[in-house]
Amino acid sequence: xxxxxxxxxxxxxxxxxxxxxxGDRVLLSGxxxxxxxxxxxxxxxxxxxxxxxxxxxxGSVIYYAGPTQAPEGLVIGSCxxxxxxxxxxxTPRLLSLGLCGMIGKGAxxxxxxxxxxxxxxxxxxxxxxxxxxxARCVRKCDVVAFEDLGCESxxxxxxxxxxxxxxxxxxxxDLYRR
Length: 178
What we know:
By secondary structure, the chain is of the alpha/beta class. It has one domain (5-168): Fe-S hydro-lyase, tartrate dehydratase beta-type, catalytic domain (fumarase, Alpha-Beta Barrel). Helix content is 21%, strand content 28%.
């Protein structure tokens, strides 16, 4: 296991993901999109209807989080990860459209681990219960879709040195199963 963190800009995630291995520590900087269960259901409905997604999925990173409202003077409230397996039914399709990275907590299904490897993507785990810590890494937060979902709306976050660990890699490595 690598105990030094590698800095990666999300604009470079498509090139970086295939080289990362389960257990690598990473400090992510750049844009990530938040999306939880309700947003993923809407993504699926849009795709089924042949409509475009409200975010540029190819080359992007999705953070499974529903940040709370920002207290006065802060960019964002608590923004810890949610359980990733709830997005497993939708993940292979998004990966096939070019999604390069996901951030969440917990293990992924074997089908998703295989899809991550097949697409050359990466799944990062974040620490549950550390939402206040992660909020300190957020420099900007804008709602970009599904505002009616409140904290589960899709947001574009700009993060700096957001600490994550590679859980599933493009070689089929799975931190949760080794």
